[in-house]
Amino acid sequence: MNALPSGGVIPELFRGLFDDAAVFPPGNLPVAEAVPAHRAHRAAWYAEAVGPFLCGAGRLGELAAAVSAGAVPGAAGADDSVVAGDRPLKVGLVLPGGSIELAPALAAAAPFELAGAELATRDAAEAVAALDRLLPPDVPAAVELPRELLRGDGLDAVLDVLVDSPYRAKFRTGGLVAEAFPNEDELAAFLTGCAQRGLPYKCTAGLHNAVRHTDPETGFEHHGFLNVLLAAQETDRAAAAAVLAERDGEVLAKAARALTDRQIVVIRNSFTAFGTCSIAEPLGDLAALGLLSSPSPLHQEDR
Question: Which one-letter DSSP state was computed for residue 155?
Fold first, then answer.
């Protein structure tokens, strides 16, 4: 059985899971505030849970200015690189405009440590070709297609293109309107389609909380990231949908505690990360469920 460590150590199940999407909706934190907040996350006891700073292609200049303004004088590379303390800022590029944005975004991201690229497209094969041509070979990437193209036979066709590439799939699990949230069966189709092919993926939007729930203010049905983690090991669509539908946090926490080391490897090789505009919120949920031992309180201002 997997024993959850104490003392604030991040369990393997959650390491690198939370990509910092603070500047994206619904958080919309100004870049000038998001950069020092990200630096604080990377220096905190929970740093192993935090992925790269996600930035849209159109805001890289703004990001460079914000990071340079806070660079430490005399730090290694401070004159020709933007650094967080003595470390280059790890940036994940988000390219909603597709492959046409890739070359200029890569040039604009040169001062940073490029942690990945996420490319939205309507043509998976074209996106793969552009990434093959332009992306440095050691940089990971994910390809996102509109959900309407991932229904029925379209899902299999897209996943078959990606499984023959070095790139992950990316799936949108929420947004600013109710229609942006897929139901359990739609998400289960994506997860199991990837699992059957051994295709890794990341998710984005709507996964701030660990457990599936109805937002009391908007009425939107939110998937829980803990539900998605547990469903990631399923290859049967109905079984995955049942896990995604579970609303009892204690049931999910018990299942997470029972995972073997091998199961955790399978899960995280599949579900690699998700973008969240809050880092404190998902960590707070895990602590409340007894899945994370926090040596210090998590506050809203830590987001």
Answer: H
Structure tokens at 208: 């701030």
Report residue 193 as tokens. 């389609």
Cβ atoms 268, 13 nearer than 8 A: yes
Q: List the end-to-end C-alpha distance of the chain, in Å, as a whole number.
A: 32
Q: Mind giving me the DSSP string for 29-77?
A: --HHHHHHHHHHHHHSTTGGGEEEEEEEGGGHHHHHHHHHHTPPTTSTT
Q: How many CB atoms lie within 10 A of CB 247?
A: 12
Q: Which two tokens stand for residue 296?
A: 């210090």
Instruction: Please indicate, yes or no, whether the overall pTM of this predicted structure exceeds 0.85.
Output: yes
Rounded CA separation 114/295 (Å):
31
Burial of 249 (0-12, 13-18, 19+ CB in 10 A): buried
Structure tokens at 268: 């995280």
- Please list the residues that pair with 119 across neighbouring strands: 95, 143
Q: Which helix (H) or strand (E) holds 37?
A: helix 31-43
Task: Determine contact, residues 20/26, Cβ cutoff 8 Å.
Answer: no
By DSSP bridging, strand 83-84 and strand 87-88 are antiparallel
The token duo for 192 is 């199991």
Span 166-186, pLDDT tens digits:
999 999 999 999 999 999 999
